[in-house]
Design a protein that fits this description.
Elements lengths: L5 H5 L5 H26 L1 H14 L7 H17 L7 H27 L10 H24 L1 H4 L13 H22 L2 H20 L8 H18 L26
Helix pairs in contact: 2-9, 3-10, 4-10, 5-6, 6-8, 8-9
Protein backbone atom coordinates (compact mmCIF):
# COMPACT_ATOMS: atom_id res chain seq x y z
CA UNK A 1 0.00 0.00 0.00
CA UNK A 2 1.49 3.33 -1.06
CA UNK A 3 1.33 6.19 1.41
CA UNK A 4 -0.82 8.94 -0.07
CA UNK A 5 -2.90 11.88 1.07
CA UNK A 6 -6.12 10.29 2.40
CA UNK A 7 -8.00 13.58 2.09
CA UNK A 8 -7.14 13.85 -1.59
CA UNK A 9 -8.64 10.38 -2.11
CA UNK A 10 -11.70 11.40 -0.09
CA UNK A 11 -12.24 14.36 -2.42
CA UNK A 12 -13.66 11.92 -4.98
CA UNK A 13 -16.82 11.71 -2.85
CA UNK A 14 -16.58 14.71 -0.49
CA UNK A 15 -15.83 18.18 -1.93
CA UNK A 16 -12.69 19.82 -0.52
CA UNK A 17 -14.80 22.82 0.54
CA UNK A 18 -16.80 20.56 2.85
CA UNK A 19 -13.63 19.17 4.45
CA UNK A 20 -12.20 22.66 4.88
CA UNK A 21 -15.45 23.92 6.40
CA UNK A 22 -15.39 21.07 8.90
CA UNK A 23 -11.83 21.96 9.97
CA UNK A 24 -12.83 25.62 10.39
CA UNK A 25 -15.84 24.60 12.50
CA UNK A 26 -13.61 22.47 14.73
CA UNK A 27 -11.24 25.43 15.17
CA UNK A 28 -14.17 27.67 16.13
CA UNK A 29 -15.32 25.04 18.64
CA UNK A 30 -11.87 25.11 20.24
CA UNK A 31 -11.90 28.91 20.50
CA UNK A 32 -15.49 29.13 21.69
CA UNK A 33 -15.16 26.21 24.10
CA UNK A 34 -11.99 27.61 25.63
CA UNK A 35 -13.51 31.07 26.09
CA UNK A 36 -16.62 29.53 27.63
CA UNK A 37 -14.46 27.42 29.96
CA UNK A 38 -12.49 30.50 31.03
CA UNK A 39 -15.67 32.47 31.70
CA UNK A 40 -17.43 29.61 33.48
CA UNK A 41 -14.53 28.65 35.73
CA UNK A 42 -13.23 32.23 36.03
CA UNK A 43 -9.73 30.91 35.37
CA UNK A 44 -8.42 34.11 33.78
CA UNK A 45 -9.73 36.24 36.65
CA UNK A 46 -8.10 33.93 39.18
CA UNK A 47 -4.71 34.13 37.48
CA UNK A 48 -4.84 37.91 37.02
CA UNK A 49 -5.93 38.43 40.64
CA UNK A 50 -3.21 36.11 41.87
CA UNK A 51 -0.68 37.86 39.63
CA UNK A 52 -1.64 41.28 41.05
CA UNK A 53 -1.48 39.99 44.62
CA UNK A 54 1.91 38.45 43.95
CA UNK A 55 3.20 41.72 42.47
CA UNK A 56 1.86 43.87 45.30
CA UNK A 57 3.38 41.62 47.97
CA UNK A 58 6.67 41.10 46.16
CA UNK A 59 9.72 41.17 48.40
CA UNK A 60 11.90 41.96 45.42
CA UNK A 61 11.11 43.29 41.96
CA UNK A 62 11.50 41.14 38.85
CA UNK A 63 13.14 43.12 36.05
CA UNK A 64 12.33 42.93 32.38
CA UNK A 65 15.34 40.78 31.57
CA UNK A 66 14.57 38.33 34.34
CA UNK A 67 10.92 38.23 33.25
CA UNK A 68 12.00 37.25 29.74
CA UNK A 69 14.31 34.58 31.16
CA UNK A 70 11.46 33.16 33.27
CA UNK A 71 9.18 33.11 30.23
CA UNK A 72 11.83 31.24 28.23
CA UNK A 73 12.33 28.75 31.07
CA UNK A 74 8.57 28.20 31.23
CA UNK A 75 8.37 27.60 27.48
CA UNK A 76 11.35 25.24 27.39
CA UNK A 77 11.01 23.34 30.67
CA UNK A 78 7.30 23.37 31.47
CA UNK A 79 5.80 23.43 27.96
CA UNK A 80 8.25 21.86 25.52
CA UNK A 81 9.79 19.36 27.97
CA UNK A 82 6.71 18.83 30.20
CA UNK A 83 8.81 19.41 33.31
CA UNK A 84 5.72 19.25 35.55
CA UNK A 85 5.79 15.45 35.34
CA UNK A 86 8.22 13.94 37.84
CA UNK A 87 7.47 10.40 36.72
CA UNK A 88 9.65 9.78 33.64
CA UNK A 89 7.24 7.29 32.06
CA UNK A 90 4.42 9.78 32.42
CA UNK A 91 6.56 12.52 30.88
CA UNK A 92 7.62 10.42 27.89
CA UNK A 93 4.04 9.34 27.30
CA UNK A 94 2.86 12.94 27.48
CA UNK A 95 5.59 14.17 25.11
CA UNK A 96 4.80 11.45 22.57
CA UNK A 97 1.13 12.34 22.68
CA UNK A 98 1.68 16.10 22.61
CA UNK A 99 4.22 16.27 19.79
CA UNK A 100 2.45 13.54 17.87
CA UNK A 101 -0.80 15.49 18.02
CA UNK A 102 0.94 18.70 16.90
CA UNK A 103 2.48 16.91 13.90
CA UNK A 104 -0.77 15.13 13.10
CA UNK A 105 -2.84 18.33 13.36
CA UNK A 106 -0.50 20.51 11.29
CA UNK A 107 -0.17 17.94 8.49
CA UNK A 108 -3.94 17.43 8.48
CA UNK A 109 -4.57 21.16 8.02
CA UNK A 110 -1.95 21.42 5.25
CA UNK A 111 -3.27 18.41 3.34
CA UNK A 112 -6.90 19.53 3.64
CA UNK A 113 -6.37 23.16 2.67
CA UNK A 114 -3.50 22.92 0.19
CA UNK A 115 -3.60 19.42 -1.29
CA UNK A 116 -7.19 18.20 -1.00
CA UNK A 117 -7.40 16.99 -4.60
CA UNK A 118 -5.30 14.37 -6.45
CA UNK A 119 -4.34 17.02 -8.99
CA UNK A 120 -2.61 19.05 -6.28
CA UNK A 121 0.22 16.46 -6.04
CA UNK A 122 0.74 16.19 -2.29
CA UNK A 123 4.46 16.08 -1.29
CA UNK A 124 5.31 12.52 -0.28
CA UNK A 125 6.60 13.63 3.13
CA UNK A 126 3.26 15.10 4.29
CA UNK A 127 1.21 11.88 4.56
CA UNK A 128 4.26 10.11 6.02
CA UNK A 129 4.48 12.70 8.80
CA UNK A 130 0.70 12.48 9.24
CA UNK A 131 0.99 8.75 9.94
CA UNK A 132 4.05 9.25 12.16
CA UNK A 133 2.25 11.90 14.22
CA UNK A 134 -0.83 9.69 14.54
CA UNK A 135 1.23 6.68 15.63
CA UNK A 136 3.01 8.82 18.24
CA UNK A 137 -0.37 9.84 19.67
CA UNK A 138 -1.50 6.21 19.78
CA UNK A 139 1.70 4.97 21.42
CA UNK A 140 1.74 7.72 24.04
CA UNK A 141 -2.02 7.65 24.61
CA UNK A 142 -2.52 3.90 24.90
CA UNK A 143 0.63 3.53 26.99
CA UNK A 144 -0.73 6.10 29.43
CA UNK A 145 -4.25 4.66 29.39
CA UNK A 146 -3.41 1.01 30.03
CA UNK A 147 -0.16 1.16 32.03
CA UNK A 148 0.55 4.56 33.59
CA UNK A 149 -2.70 5.95 34.99
CA UNK A 150 -2.56 5.96 38.78
CA UNK A 151 -6.04 4.50 39.17
CA UNK A 152 -4.93 1.58 36.98
CA UNK A 153 -1.23 1.14 37.85
CA UNK A 154 -1.44 1.82 41.60
CA UNK A 155 -5.07 1.33 42.58
CA UNK A 156 -5.81 -1.71 40.46
CA UNK A 157 -8.95 -0.36 38.78
CA UNK A 158 -10.00 -1.63 35.38
CA UNK A 159 -8.40 0.22 32.44
CA UNK A 160 -11.88 0.31 30.89
CA UNK A 161 -13.27 2.39 33.77
CA UNK A 162 -14.34 5.81 32.46
CA UNK A 163 -15.01 9.09 34.26
CA UNK A 164 -15.60 12.57 32.86
CA UNK A 165 -11.94 13.53 33.36
CA UNK A 166 -11.04 10.86 30.79
CA UNK A 167 -13.07 12.53 28.03
CA UNK A 168 -10.12 14.37 26.50
CA UNK A 169 -7.60 11.54 26.30
CA UNK A 170 -10.20 8.97 25.22
CA UNK A 171 -11.66 11.14 22.45
CA UNK A 172 -8.16 12.14 21.31
CA UNK A 173 -6.86 8.59 21.04
CA UNK A 174 -10.05 7.31 19.40
CA UNK A 175 -10.11 10.19 16.91
CA UNK A 176 -6.53 9.53 15.80
CA UNK A 177 -7.00 5.75 15.81
CA UNK A 178 -10.13 5.90 13.66
CA UNK A 179 -8.41 8.41 11.37
CA UNK A 180 -5.47 6.10 10.75
CA UNK A 181 -7.71 3.06 10.28
CA UNK A 182 -9.98 5.00 7.92
CA UNK A 183 -7.01 6.07 5.79
CA UNK A 184 -5.65 2.51 5.59
CA UNK A 185 -9.04 0.98 4.77
CA UNK A 186 -9.70 3.66 2.15
CA UNK A 187 -6.39 2.81 0.47
CA UNK A 188 -7.49 -0.84 0.14
CA UNK A 189 -10.60 0.17 -1.79
CA UNK A 190 -13.16 -1.23 0.65
CA UNK A 191 -15.95 1.33 0.21
CA UNK A 192 -18.33 0.11 2.93
CA UNK A 193 -15.70 -0.06 5.68
CA UNK A 194 -14.22 3.24 4.51
CA UNK A 195 -17.49 5.03 5.28
CA UNK A 196 -17.88 3.19 8.59
CA UNK A 197 -14.49 4.32 9.86
CA UNK A 198 -14.92 7.78 8.33
CA UNK A 199 -18.11 8.18 10.37
CA UNK A 200 -16.34 7.02 13.54
CA UNK A 201 -13.43 9.34 12.76
CA UNK A 202 -15.71 12.36 12.35
CA UNK A 203 -17.78 11.45 15.40
CA UNK A 204 -14.81 11.08 17.75
CA UNK A 205 -13.14 14.19 16.33
CA UNK A 206 -16.30 16.24 16.85
CA UNK A 207 -16.49 14.99 20.44
CA UNK A 208 -12.82 15.89 20.96
CA UNK A 209 -13.16 19.50 19.81
CA UNK A 210 -16.77 20.03 20.81
CA UNK A 211 -16.48 18.86 24.42
CA UNK A 212 -13.90 21.41 25.59
CA UNK A 213 -16.09 22.90 28.35
CA UNK A 214 -16.41 19.40 29.90
CA UNK A 215 -12.99 17.92 29.11
CA UNK A 216 -9.40 18.83 30.00
CA UNK A 217 -8.54 20.07 26.49
CA UNK A 218 -8.37 23.71 27.59
CA UNK A 219 -5.82 22.86 30.30
CA UNK A 220 -3.11 23.01 27.65
CA UNK A 221 -3.75 26.78 27.50
CA UNK A 222 -3.94 27.26 31.28
CA UNK A 223 -0.85 25.30 32.29
CA UNK A 224 1.78 27.62 30.72
CA UNK A 225 0.19 30.63 32.44
CA UNK A 226 0.11 28.80 35.77
CA UNK A 227 3.73 27.68 35.40
CA UNK A 228 4.88 31.22 34.55
CA UNK A 229 2.98 32.67 37.51
CA UNK A 230 4.61 30.17 39.84
CA UNK A 231 8.12 30.98 38.58
CA UNK A 232 7.50 34.72 38.98
CA UNK A 233 6.13 34.20 42.50
CA UNK A 234 9.24 32.24 43.41
CA UNK A 235 11.47 34.93 41.90
CA UNK A 236 9.84 37.88 43.68
CA UNK A 237 9.73 36.13 47.04
CA UNK A 238 6.01 35.54 47.35
CA UNK A 239 4.50 32.14 47.80
CA UNK A 240 2.31 30.91 44.96
CA UNK A 241 -1.19 29.68 45.74
CA UNK A 242 -0.76 27.03 43.10
CA UNK A 243 0.00 23.52 44.39
CA UNK A 244 3.46 22.11 43.92
CA UNK A 245 3.79 19.03 41.69
CA UNK A 246 3.81 15.62 43.36
CA UNK A 247 7.48 14.69 43.48
CA UNK A 248 7.56 12.01 46.13
CA UNK A 249 10.24 9.40 45.37
CA UNK A 250 9.24 5.96 44.24
CA UNK A 251 9.39 3.35 46.99
CA UNK A 252 9.72 -0.35 46.17
CA UNK A 253 8.68 0.34 42.56
CA UNK A 254 5.46 2.15 43.48
CA UNK A 255 4.05 4.91 41.31
CA UNK A 256 4.08 8.46 42.79
CA UNK A 257 0.69 9.59 43.91
CA UNK A 258 -0.61 11.97 41.26
CA UNK A 259 -3.69 12.46 39.18
CA UNK A 260 -4.47 9.60 36.84
CA UNK A 261 -5.89 11.73 34.03
CA UNK A 262 -4.48 14.01 31.36
Amino acid sequence: MSISNPFAELSASVPPAVMQSYVVIMALLVIGGTLFDIAHKKSARYFFDNWRNSTSKAKQQVGGGEMVALAVQTAVVDVMASGEFCNMRRRVSHLLTMYGFVIYLITTVIMVFAFATPAAHTPASLPIWWYIGGLMVCIGGYWFWFFIRVDVAAEGNSPLRLVRADLFIVSLVLSVTFGLVWACVQATGSTAWTYVFLFLYLLSTTVLFGSIPWSKFSHMFFKPAAALEKRISDANGTRSNLPAPADAPRIFGSVPRQTGHY
